[in-house]
Amino acid sequence: MSVTTNGKKIIRVENLKKYFPITRGLIIQRQVGTVKAVDDISFDIYEGETLGLVGESGCGKSTTGRTILQLHRPTEGKVFYQDLELSALPDHEMWLVRRKFIPFTYLRNACIRKL
């Protein structure tokens, strides 16, 4: 579904992927597979809009939110806050951005953007 809006684009997510490795071994660990927690999602959030992620338990809703906030770094894809590419920032700069520019309210493991 495509919706045209004249508002300011706040969040842009492009081809976001987050994979977690499955490892075996105690001393010498080797990767034996991957879990595709988030696999190629894209969306925009405009000023005044609300986005709700709905799905079954374990489908990647929380991982999507954490990856947008860069609490988990994406395996692939880009996340933009206004015109700033969050996925390209080092951890110390991302911490400042989270603290200064992105106020979030947490409710029962969900984060809701205050616009």
Assembly context of the chains: single chain
Q: Provide the residue-averaged pLDDT.
A: 83
CATH topology: Rossmann fold
CATH architecture: 3-Layer(aba) Sandwich
Low-confidence stretches: none
Name of the CATH homologous superfamily: P-loop containing nucleotide triphosphate hydrolases
State the major sheet.
4 strands, antiparallel
Explain the overall architecture.
- This protein is α+β, with helices and mostly antiparallel strands.
- The chain has one domain: P-loop containing nucleotide triphosphate hydrolases (Rossmann fold), CATH 3.40.50.300.
- Helix content is 17%, strand content 43%.
- The chain contains two helices and six strands.
- The protein has helices spanning 61-68, 91-101, and strands spanning 9-24, 30-46, 76-81, 84-85, 104-107, 110-113.
- A hairpin with a 5-residue loop joins strand 1 and strand 2.
- The two termini are 23 Å apart.
- The mean pLDDT is 83.
Key structural traits:
115 residues; globular; alpha+beta
Secondary structure topology:
Layout: E1 9-24, E2 30-46, H1 61-68, E3 76-81, E4 84-85, H2 91-101, E5 104-107, E6 110-113
Antiparallel strand pairs: 1-2, 1-3, 3-4, 5-6
Short recap of the structure:
The chain has 115 residues and is of the alpha+beta class. It is built from 2 helices and 6 strands; from the N terminus they run E-E-H-E-E-H-E-E. A hairpin with a 2-residue loop joins strand 3 and strand 4.
